[in-house]
Specification:
Helix content of chain A: 25-40%
Shape of chain A: elongated
Oligomer: heterodimer
Structural class of chain B: alpha/beta
Number of strands of chain B: 22
Structural class of chain A: alpha/beta
Strand content of chain A: 5-15%
Distance between the termini of chain A: 29 Å
Radius of gyration of chain B: 21 Å
Number of helices of chain A: 3
Strand content of chain B: 25-35%
């Protein structure tokens, strides 16, 4: 889907719990998410930490949209801690 | 470990009394089996039907198929661990099987709308017993079809346990009919032989877990010794699988897995079959998938494997850990062949595999699950108490789409066509 939207000239940032798969199928801007069940947040965190995590992922997606890329590129959310699903 | 697998071939199933096996003919007393199933009052109703290869029959709402097997020597019980059965290690001694018989579990769809849909309820699998759709191995079986319906208000967990336990009671009773008879044939698998001059081979099966949907302690879904949860890889003797150590989706397919059987037959002759690595899939974060794959390869290394055959029983994201497992094996110089179905090719626009890496150098295609139709109208529809008219009518062929899966050839029966490359 992201490839088709890109083809129409609209940049796409794809937030994915499985960035390797997204990159493999050719998505251009892939943002590392948390888990398949909750890509943009983590219910095991406190509401404040969850909010911080979500913001980091969404802001990374916005940054990705503004970044020119030559091919499939992974964007890592920048927060004080690692994305918990990756731990 | 050494297992004698004695086959009591079933060529014909008929209703009658008393229940017995005699020279390829299985006679089933329907009243006895209705009583046996309804010992558990969580099951409101049950009907029994018979379908033979070539019959104008469509079996709908299929949840599982199993082949009755019983241990007559050696520890444990067949289909260990599920429904509170003994967890003693199976796979040695002697087992009787009713080869050629399919015990088909169907659930009448009227009450079948629970949230665990797709795992315990709401299965849309159906079997064509004749015509172009008769490509599933079950179409070649003499099928005893049990259609069940639950009492009102059961939880998914209760219902799953009730119907599975009922099917196992039926299976045990049918397999008992072989006691005291001479088998049609006996196959012996002696895994005590360990010839290290032969190439060491492992079988790697990636089997789905429904843990993400039903939690870690559920009985729902594919189980190893009754355990359904995500876990580090299991290591099983091939004969444990023949004794039913893996159940569901379908149980028949597990006990009759052609890759396990062929590797076991060639053990000590032209290869050294080191064991079966059962990887559970549906990890939901990339690092977990990577870890699961690395542990598979490490286990294969520790066993001394030089070669591996890998399969995967799902599509979608779970395919990733299967591919990563093959990659990890290849990176350890374990020559690995992936046996898999292909994705629908969407007029040549889609890749054959949803995910791959350059390390995957050997694959066997089991087709793309397309089964061209039309499937002709049928005289009888089994698997529902009052099947709607459309189940009797002609149906178009079935595409290999992600959701509508008529037949996915995970283990290479090859009846729907396959190409090696």
């Amino acid at each position: 889907m992201s490839k088709e939207i890109e083809r129409a000239g609209i940049p796409v940032a794809m937030m994915s719990a499985l960035p390797a798969l997204a990159l493999n199928v050719g998505a251009l801007r892939v943002v590392r998410g948390v888990r398949i069940e909750h890509v943009c947040g983590d219910p095991s965190l406190s509401p404040e930490e969850d909010q911080e995590l979500s913001e980091a992922i969404v802001l990374t997606a916005l940054r990705a949209l503004q970044t020119p890329v030559d091919g499939p590129t992974l964007f890592e959310p920048q927060i004080g801690r690692e994305v918990s699903g990756a731990s | 470990m050494r297992l004698e697998l004695a086959d009591f071939a079933v060529r014909r199933v008929a209703f009658g009394s008393p229940t017995r096996w005699s020279d390829g003919r299985l006679t089933v007393d329907p009243d006895e089996f209705v009583d046996l199933v309804r010992q558990d009052r969580r099951i409101r109703a049950v009907t029994l039907d018979v379908a033979h290869p070539g019959d104008s029959v469509r079996i709908v709402n299929v949840h599982d198929v199993l082949e009755p097997r019983i241990k007559v020597d050696g520890p444990g019980r067949t289909f260990p661990g599920v429904c509170d059965r003994d967890v003693a290690t199976v796979g040695s001694g002697r087992t009787h099987r009713l080869g050629g018989l399919g015990l088909v579990e169907c659930v009448d769809p009227s009450d079948d709308l629970g949230p665990a849909r797709g795992e315990s309820r709401g299965s849309h699998q159906f079997i064509e017993m004749s015509g172009p759709g008769a490509v599933q191995p079950y179409a070649g079986l003499r099928n005893l079809v049990l259609t069940l319906s639950p009492e009102n208000g059961l939880s998914d967990e209760d219902w799953d346990e009730a119907k599975r336990a009922a099917m196992l009671r039926v299976s045990d009773r049918l397999a008992e009919t072989t006691l005291g008879h001479e088998p049609s044939s006996v196959e012996t698998f002696n895994l005590a032989v360990d010839d290290r001059s032969l190439p060491g081979v492992v079988f790697i099966a990636n089997l789905r877990s429904a843990e993400h949907r039903v939690g870690p302690r559920s009985g729902i879904g594919t189980a190893v010794y009754g355990v359904t949860r995500l876990s580090a890889p299991w290591l099983l003797h091939p004969t444990e699988i023949m004794d039913g150590a893996i159940t569901r989706k379908t149980t028949w397919m597990q006990t009759n897995n052609p890759i396990v059987l062929e590797l076991a037959r060639r053990h000590g002759r032209d290869l050294n079959f080191l064991g079966c690595i059962i990887a559970r899939t549906n990890w939901t974060a990339q690092r977990e998938k990577q870890l699961a794959a690395l542990r598979v390869a490490e286990l294969a290394m520790m066993l001394g494997a030089q070669g591996a055959v890998a399969t995967v029983d799902v599509r979608g994201n779970r395919f990733i850990e299967a591919i990563l497992g093959v990659q990890a094996c290849e990176q350890r110089n374990i020559k690995t062949t992936l046996c898999t179905v292909e994705e629908p090719n969407e007029d040549g626009q889609a890749p054959a595999l949803i995910f791959s890496t350059p390390d995957i150098v050997s694959a066997v295609s089991c087709g793309d699950s397309d089964v061209p139709g039309p499937f002709p109208a049928v005289e009888r529809v089994l698997g529902a108490f009052e099947p709607p008219a459309e189940w009797h009518a002609e149906r178009p062929g079935e595409g290999g789409g992600h959701i509508a899966r008529y037949w996915v050839d995970y283990y290479g029966w090859g009846r729907a066509g396959c190409v090696d490359f």
